[in-house]
Design brief:
Organism: Crocodylus porosus (Saltwater crocodile)
Strand content: under 5%
Number of helices: 2
Keywords: Coiled coil
Largest sheet: none
Protein name: SS18 like 2
Family: Belongs to the SS18 family.
Helix content: 55-70%
Distance between the termini: 25 Å
Structural class: mainly alpha
Order of helices and strands: HH
Shape: elongated
């Protein structure tokens, strides 16, 4: 299950930190690799499933980026 998926009852309570963002980026990398592999094998159904998860993750990241003030500097841990 995607690290970006948070059940409705827990939304707004999860802490967004550098570790969570890194895990999400790594998951997106794995999703893209799986999509490319399934596309090369002609397995469209699996592609669509992974594309939906990737889309949800990207929307989540965009939402975080939109709500983060521009003057906040992030440091690598």
């Amino acid at each position: 299950m995607s690290v970006a998926f948070v059940p409705e009852r827990l939304r707004g309570k999860a802490e967004v930190n550098q570790e969570t963002l890194q895990r999400l980026l790594e998951e997106n990398d794995q999703l893209i690799r799986a999509i490319v592999e399934y596309q090369s094998k002609g397995r469209a159904t699996e592609c669509v499933q992974y594309q939906h998860i990737l889309h949800r993750n990207l929307i989540y990241l965009a939402t975080i980026a939109d709500t983060t003030p521009p003057n906040v500097q992030r440091t690598a841990d």
